[in-house]
Amino acid sequence: MGTLNHFSFGWLTPAISYVMACVGAALGLRCTLRALSATGPSRRNWLLTAAAAIGSGIWTMHFIAMFGFTVDGTELRYDVPLTLLSLVMAIVVVGVGVFVVGYGRHRGRALLLGGLTTGLGVAAMHYTGMAAVRLHGALGYSPGAVVLSVLIAVGAATAALWAAVTIRNLFAAAAASLLMGVAVSSMHYTGMAAVHVHLHPDRTGLGGATPMQFVFPLAVALGSFLFLASAFVALSPTAQEHAAYREAGEITVEELDRAA
Questions:
Q1: Running along the chain, 260 residues long, what does each successive block of 10 average in pLDDT?
Q2: Whether 64 contacts 219, CB under 8 Å
Q3: Per-residue DSSP letter, 198
Q4: How far is CA 71 from CA 2, 7, 10, 93, in A?
Q5: In this structure, what DSSP letter does residue 74 have?
Q6: CA–CA distance, 13 with 2 (Å, rounded to integer)
Q7: Alpha helices, DSSP H only, in the chain?
Q8: DSSP codes, 147-194
Q9: Is the CB of residue 186 less than 8 Å from the CB of residue 145?
Q10: CA distance 64 to 211
Q11: What is the model's pTM?
């Protein structure tokens, strides 16, 4: 059995991955809140942005943390199609969850269903991403730790969606994002604690790409998207501000008419 190391770069990869999880959660919660105060295509667009933010944030967190994962006696590579599938899976399933919350008529039922769907999607993304790992051996899992990681994912997703529809205070939302980052990171490392590797003596060539060839550029691109989207959302006016601008414009026109 191969010796695993989850912290090859010390606390650097856990710290950066935690920041990415927090950024994705903060952006996703903010977009979900915007969606609930919008109507028509605007609500749909905000929910799509929320799904992209939360899904890509969780995916980026996972693969940045994986940079610190090494196995003595073998190199690691990643199957490109499976890795991309894990990203698409994260965004699509999280999208289902936030749309359930965004359009659900019964808030409590929508939160439970959305949290369950999103949490299972997060877990599916994690284990699909692990299935993309190529090494001189085979990965195995401890069932108890796997179940615990799935429960953490569902609980974290439900709490995040509850925060998105309940919290209005900016500082409380920031605290919720930090806690969501802790929950997502806990899910990841609980899932990684379930892993054990059985090395094979043969040294056949590994398929796939190295982390620096594929995963790192994609993680940087997604991280850039999250930070740029966060800046855009922070600077864009809310629905209430739009209404205030519109009202101010109407008042100005009326005053000009009276002056004429």
A1: 81 90 85 82 88 87 88 87 90 87 82 86 89 88 92 85 72 78 88 88 73 81 83 65 45 50
A2: yes
A3: E
A4: 6, 11, 15, 31
A5: B
A6: 21
A7: 12-36, 40-66, 80-103, 107-131, 143-166, 170-193, 216-235, 239-259
A8: HHHHHHHHHHHHHHHHHHHH---HHHHHHHHHHHHHHHHHHHHHHHHT
A9: no
A10: 10
A11: 0.82
Query: Do 78 and 133 touch, CB atoms closer than 8 A?
Result: yes
Which helix (H) or strand (E) covers residue 141, if one does? strand 137-141
Structure tokens at 85: 């599938």
Residue 17, CB half-sphere, CA atoms under 13 Å: how many?
29
* 4 sits in which H/E element: strand 4-5
Residue 51 in tokens: 């799904």
- Integer Cα distance of 89 and 115 in angstroms: 16
